[in-house]
Amino acid sequence: xxxxxxxxxxxxxxxxxxxxxxxxxxxxxxxxxxxxxxxxxxxxxxxxxxxxxxxxxxxxxxxxxxxxxxxxxxxxxxxxxxxxxxxxxxxxxxxxxxxxxxxxxxxxxxxxxxxxxxxxxxxxxxxxxxxxxxxxxxxxxxxxxxxxxxxxxxxxxxxxxxxxxxxxxxxxxxxxxxxxxxxxxxxxxxxxxxxxxxxxxxxxxxxxxxxxxxxxxxxxxxxxxxxxxxxxxxxxxxxxxxxxxxxxxxxxxxxxxxxxxxxxxx
Length: 266
Known about the structure:
This protein is 58% helix and 20% strand.
């Protein structure tokens, strides 16, 4: 056995050393390629944030493409080290790509949908959207999925094709939004005091926009109740703060009016 091993090493020592050198060099190149790929991805993100060279919506997909490009170059170098004809490999990959594309048509659909989302821009990073059962703020639009964060802090990863094929409600895009507050009052109560108070609230609230103008209307009337409707516009960033504050003012006034009425009747 020892003699056989000695003969084997004597005969193939040069081949083994050459193969070992190539394997070691290939591992080093792959490691360096992976490191450079990660560095390039992070650099694209950092430079975009620092110098605003890319739209925030495009940063994730450009950084991903740049990383894959660097890693692909490293793989081609490794193949060349082992004497593989890279031209034939590229042709083979092209042919195999067609077969893989047919097998992974859903994945390619997500890529195509992601590209269309980036070109047509129905959504951008930071927009609060609703699409089917998905609701949240856009964090990232990637090659395959779009990342959202719900108001209660839940992470959602939605396939691009789902967003592209659905009807998207973008609550952020127009910059301002109308709030609708409805008050139900009994038919035996006078409407004028409610109209007067709601108009006072809309006049005093400086965060309401003057254009479009706020409205107080009778929305609906039933046998036992009347619905008074307040419509007012505000900036998207202030919407919920104004909505909650306005509801609180209305509720406080209604409660105070009932207490005053009770005290008077007593």
